[in-house]
Design goal:
The chain is of the alpha+beta class and about 375 residues long. It has helices at about 10-20, 35-70, 75-100, 115-130, 135-150, 175-190, 195-225, 240-260, 260-280, 295-330, 355-360; strands at about 30, 100-105, 105-110, 150-155, 155-160, 160, 230, 235, 335.
Length: about 375
């Protein structure tokens, strides 16, 4: 906050070094060797490129939209659609940078170039998944993970994603159950004598859908991990969907409770400023709360409260969500047939120009 966001790159580097050092497969900790300077320079490069996109491309889209459709709706839609490929591109580039700066037992990880290929495949699979009303979600999950995994290396060894996408369908059972409940709720709301049963079923379907999404994420991660190989070395993962869900629910609840007080004070100050302006216009300043305080002081207090809320939320979500989730997955991860690792040798260092610049600029890589 004091450096107007510049320290963010040093903050992320220090946090990653701490997280990586606490994950110790076989008693050997991971290492993160990223440099905050290269993150900052990559961010500045990405900002320049995105500024060109926003300033030139959007201007042309706006001109064409007003010329052809007498409005700006088409320009906004096309501009949003144009950012989607960049979002997938940024996620792949961020993953590539993180792996290039991660070591275990002194050997570097790596991810081969292919960000635009990943973006194109992601767009295609998302389109097919949406057209299938979600029925082909396992197909998208498997093929996108396979694209990333088959380009991942550890030292001189390349990782391979085995299995088939159909094996992920059992993980969708809770989602199918939630869809069935939603259908029953719709029938009850349409044909039932009172809306109460339908509303209850709809709420139950929503809760089931939330759990179903978490269950799908965890179970597919377990299955995909079990089918990864690295020149004879295997992996296994044991995680609990319910535990992951509870960590998120309770963690965000605790963080939310912690920011209630500063949020209430901020709302009080903003409301006081608003009523002060209204009273000034009507000449009734004597009835306005906070009337004797300087305006600059109220604005300064509002800004401090806003940043206090941001800092508390960021720190507590790390404490109650990010760290427990990371710990749960790390404790459930196993390396199978580790003796084969001895044959793997070092790989050259990958410079990864621009680092995570696009991920930072698009707020894709803001988390650990």
């Amino acid at each position: 906050m004091l450096t107007l966001g510049i320290y963010r790159f040093w903050m992320k580097t220090r946090l990653r070094r701490w997280y990586w050092s606490t994950i110790r497969p076989g008693g050997q900790p991971l290492e993160y060797v990223g440099d905050p300077i290269e993150k900052l320079l990559g961010f500045l490069i990405a900002v320049v490129i995105l500024a060109f996109y926003i300033g030139i491309v959007n201007l042309l889209l706006m001109f064409l939209s007003f010329s052809l459709f007498q409005g700006n709706g088409a320009a906004y839609l096309l501009s949003f659609l144009g950012v989607i490929p960049l979002w997938f591109y940024a996620r792949y580039r961020a993953r590539r940078y993180i792996l290039a700066r991660t070591r275990w037992r002194g050997l570097r990880f790596g991810l081969a170039p292919g960000a635009w290929g990943y973006a194109g495949r992601a767009l295609w699979h998302w389109t097919v998944t949406l057209l299938s009303l979600g029925l082909l979600l396992p197909r998208m999950t498997f093929h996108l993970e396979k694209y990333r995994t088959d380009r991942t290396s550890y030292g001189t060894a390349m990782m391979v994603q085995g299995g088939r996408w159909q094996m992920l369908y059992p993980a969708m059972r809770p989602l199918f159950g939630a869809a069935a409940l939603a259908g029953v709720a719709a029938l009850a709301l349409t044909f039932g004598p009172t809306p109460a049963p339908g509303i209850g079923l709809a709420m139950l379907a929503g809760a089931a859908a939330v759990y179903g999404l978490v269950h799908y994420r965890v179970r597919t991660l377990e299955m995909l991990t079990a089918h990864k190989t690295l020149e004879g070395v295997g992996l296994s993962l044991n995680a609990s969907p319910f535990r992951i869900l509870m960590i998120h629910v309770l963690g965000y609840l605790l963080a939310g409770v912690a920011i209630v007080l500063p949020l209430m004070v901020l709302g009080f100050v903003i409301a006081g400023l608003h009523f002060a302006e209204l009273a000034t216009e009507s000449g009734a300043t004597q009835i306005v709360l906070l009337e004797n305080l300087p305006r600059w002081l109220l604005i300064g207090v509002s800004a401090m409260l806003y940043f206090t809320i941001f800092l508390i939320w960021s720190a507590l979500t790390h404490t109650f969500v990010t760290m427990p989730v990371t710990r749960h997955y790390a404790r459930g991860l196993r390396v199978l047939n580790p003796a084969r690792i001895e044959a793997i040798r070092q790989r050259p260092r990958d410079e990864v120009v621009q680092a995570e610049g696009f991920a930072e600029a698009l707020d894709v890589g803001a988390s650990i």
